[in-house]
Structures are given as C-alpha cells and as structure tokens.
Amino acid sequence: MRKLKNRIKLDLLKIYQKHNPSISTNLNKNIKIFSELMGQKLHFPLRFFKGLKVGDIACGTGDLAFIAAKNGAFVDGYDFNKFSIEYANKTSKIMKLNKAKFYNKEFFEVKKKYDFIICTAALHHLPNPIKGLNHLKKLVKPKGFLLLSFGVSSSNLQHNLMKLIVRSWGKTEEKIKFAANHLFKNHIDRCVKFGFRSRASVINDQFLNKQHDYLNLKQVFSSLEKEFTLYSLWPTIFLPRADSGNNDTLKNLKNYLFFSEFLWSSKTINDHIRIKKNIPKNGKKNFYKLVNFFNNKRNQDLIEVLAKLKKDNLKNNFIKDTDLSFGLNRHKDNFFKELTKIFFYFKKKPSINNARKFLNKNKYVFKGTNGLGINYFLFQKR
Fold first, then answer.
1. Within a 13 Å sphere around the CA of 241, how many CA atoms are in the beta-carbon half?
2. d(CA 18, CA 325)
3. Spatial distance between the Cα atoms of 128 and 109, rounded to a whole number of angstroms
4. Alpha carbon distance 63, 162 (integer Å)
5. Tell me: the pLDDT tens digits for 202-231?
6. Span 111-143, pLDDT tens digits
7. Residue 364 in contact with residue 331, Cβ under 8 Å?
8. For residues 190 and 270, what is the distance between their CA atoms, to the nearest angstrom?
C-alpha cells in the first residue's frame, strides 16, 4: 500500500512539474473569476477575510491565496511541488502581498490550525481522498471555515469515461495524448478557454494523469456533518424549493443530493442556454401580466376583478410551451440511451478513426459541458 501511495505521488509530481495545471494563462482574469465565486456564488464577502489566518493546502501557484491576502488575510500556502511554491512566492512579491507566504510541504505534514482552510482541486488526486478530508477538518479552528473544491464521482461520469476510452488503443503517453486530441478536442478546447490553462497541462492533468478518485458526496457529508454546517455550495442543490424560510427543507441534505448529482452527471448544456430554450418570451410575459393584474386590488372582490380580466383579453395559456423541467426529462432519457450505445460500441474494439466518427454523431454524451467537473463547498465549523 505504501509503495502504491509513493507511486501515485511520484507520478503526479512528474506530470505537474512538466506541465503545471496551476499556472494560469491569465492570472488577472482567474483572480477576478474566483473572487466572484467567493463573494457572489458562495456568499462569502471578501472583506470577511480581513485579519483571518488562512491556510491554503495543496495551493498550487496560489491564486486563491492571493485573493485572501489581497483582502487582508494572513496566508500560508503549502504544496508538494517546489516549482509551484517558487512560482507563488515570486508572484506574491510582484503583487506586493506581504501577508502571503508559501512553503514546500506535503499534504499530511501540515499541522497548524487556521481560521479558514482552502483546499481546491486536490482531494481527488490523493490515494485516499476521505483520509485527506479528515485531515483537513482537524486544521480548522472552532467557528472557522473550510473551502473545498473537488470532483464528485457522479459529476465526473463523462470525464471518467473519457479517460477509459483514450486508453483503448494503448496506454503509453504518446498514444493517450494522440487519442485525447483525436477524440475529445472540443472538451480540451473548452478547458483551455474557461480554465485559463495551457493545452498541454489540460491533457496531462485530465487524460494522462492516472489518479482521479472522485469523491462520493454521502461519504463527504458523513465525515463532516457532526462538526460542520454547510454554509454554501456551487452549483447549488437542484431542487424546486419554494417553502417558507421557517421550514428547513434541506435539514437532511443527503436526501436531496440525488437530484443534483443526476443533473451534474448528465450535464451537457450551459445554464443560460437551457433557460433561454425552455422559457419562451410570450410565456414569461403572460405570466407576469397575470400576477401583476391580481396584485393590490384594494377593496375589490374577485367577480369585479375577473370582469376586468375578460376585457383585458387574457387567455388561460399563461405559461404555454414553458418547460418547468428545463427539458431534463427528455434529456435524461436520450442521454442514457446514448450512453448504453457507447458501451456496446466500444466492446467491439473499433479503430480510432471509426470511434471519432461514432462519437461525433452523439447528441448528448461528450457534448457541451461534458458533465460538471468540479464542485465547490464552503463549510463552517460549529
């Protein structure tokens, strides 16, 4: 077991020292995006960092550590890759971030406790992710925060399949890279565009890298629920929630995870495209016209109001053609039918050219967003 752990570590270090996925092709944009993620999507105003002692574990080149330091935190960053640490220290000096220091240190060697622990895109690369999670929670002071991002096993269904497929014609570095470029060019291009990473680092990290032990969310919450409360997450839980604020529908979060994980695993469509596609303008217009019509009718009875409604020529198709499932039921059926066809197709061991033609005909699997990738969670220690 120890030999396997050392092999995983050495293989990962070799890949990251050759093509470091933490080095951003546009640092300023990356910092802006992560700042918005913290402040708007995870609802942690950046001014709250002021005066906090922050530990960034597996910090890479330190982008999130920079954000905390820029907003007044005292930051220590740790990473097993000395080249990442050298890069982070050099960048922090250029940015004049005197409160940020970076150290070349192994994940489990960090023992110091902090007000705010950060660990992003690292747990699923460990030999035992839950063991890593259990170590991180010990580093959080009472009332402190734990910011995690990691790949979830369900969210990464399509990513796992990609890794398996590219090894169908050989497991050497050369053959894996060729297959990845040949079959999944659109996915790689998207990662380069939205992740601000080089093409080489994307291929090495997502395809050549052998260690992606994506986490099971039930295990994560079982590990944390006795000591931590979920403060926020992104993407949010996918569940039509419209209850009173006094009725805590998410008291037992694990019961609601299935709906979200199902969506994340089969995700191919960007959110703004799905909304635009499934909410016609007329349906929205008629709905708001209706609710506004009945609003604030002082001292009138329903008969009086309905008489005016008839004159206003409003019909009963207020939300006609509006799909409140956002097309997910139809998408679900087609996605898993296509997934089954893929399984049977690759059992025949096709040539790589025929495989590319086959995958290009897909309408659901390996299209668009290709699943979710990374989930973000912010927990607070009780």
1. 16
2. 45
3. 15
4. 28
5. 999 999 999 999 999 999 999 999 999 999
6. 999 999 999 999 999 999 999 999 999 999 999
7. yes
8. 12
> Cis omega before residue 235 (within 30°)?
yes
Q: What is the spatial distance between Cα 124 and Cα 256, in angstroms, rounded to a whole number?
A: 23
Q: Which amino acid belongs to residue 6?
A: N
| Rounded Cα gap, residues 234 and 7, in angstroms | 33
Q: Over the Cα atoms of the chain, what is R_g?
A: 24
- Kindly state the tokens that stand for 146: 């734990």
Q: In what order do the strands lie in the sheet with 228-234?
A: 100-104, 74-79, 53-57, 114-120, 140-150, 375-381, 228-234
* 74 contacts 52 by C-beta, under 8 angstroms: yes
* 104: nearest Cα among 87, 122, 80, 86: 80
Q: Pick from 33, 13, 9, 11: which is nearest to 21 by CA?
A: 13
Q: Which residue type occupies 192?
A: V
Taken in order 170, 172, 173, 175, the sign of the CA dihedral is: negative
Q: Report the C-alpha gap between 302 and 206 in whole angstroms.
A: 61
The tokens of 96 are what? 């004049």
Q: Which residues pair with 114 in a beta bridge?
A: 140
User: d(Cα 167, Cα 207) in Å, to the nearest integer?
Assistant: 9
Q: Show the CA angle centred on residue 16, arms to residues 15 and 20, nearest 5°.
A: 130
* 199 contact partners, CB below 8 Å, separation of at least 6: 188, 192
Task: Round to whole Å and give the CA distance between 343 and 128.
Answer: 28
